Amino acid sequence: MKRLSVIFASLLVSLCSVGAWARPDHEPPKRHAERDTSAIAENFRIGVDRTITVEPGATRWVNVRRAEVIRFVVKPAGGTPDEFIRRMDVLSNQPYPLSKLAPEGLASGLANVMVYVAPDRLSRR
User: Fold this and answer.
1) What angle do CA 110, 77, 38 make, to 5 degrees?
2) Which helix (H) or strand (E) holds 53?
3) pLDDT in tens, 23-33
4) How far apart, in whole angstroms, are the C-alpha atoms of residue 101 and residue 103?
């Protein structure tokens, strides 16, 4: 009898949760392409350590630290500024072109901008 009451109670709880989910005023979940990602982007920007403005042709290098979260603002001459956010998760301190970090649409103008990575403040290297 005790086992039957436990089964009945769990069935009742599951039916109540399904009933709460299937309200008539509830919107169906949106597909990934329809979701508003501005709130996600704003929450991610809170964790940004620095913002670096890059002008292709004028900027030759940027200095960053390992494990920093950087928002790069790319301002092309006569164009609208674009931005992207990257965490500097690199293993070596060797310089490399910023075009390796940039999204496909921005990478072409950033091949001459070098990124120099310093060790993070907690590292002993």
Assistant:
1) 75
2) strand 50-54
3) 555 454 444 44
4) 7
* Three-point CA angle 117, 123, 125, nearest 5°: 75
Query: What distance in Å separates the CA atoms of residue 45 and residue 77, rounded to the nearest whole number?
Result: 25
The helix (run of H) or strand (run of E) holding residue 11 is helix 2-21
Identify the three-state secondary structure at position 94: coil
pLDDT band at 34 (very low <50, low <70, confident <90, very high): very low
Long-range contact pairs involving 92-95 (C-beta distance under 8 Å, separation at least 24): 92/117, 93/66, 93/117, 93/118, 93/119, 93/125, 95/61
Query: Residue 102's closest CA among 115, 119, 118, 116?
Result: 115
Q: pLDDT confidence of 73, banded at 50, 70, 90? A: very high
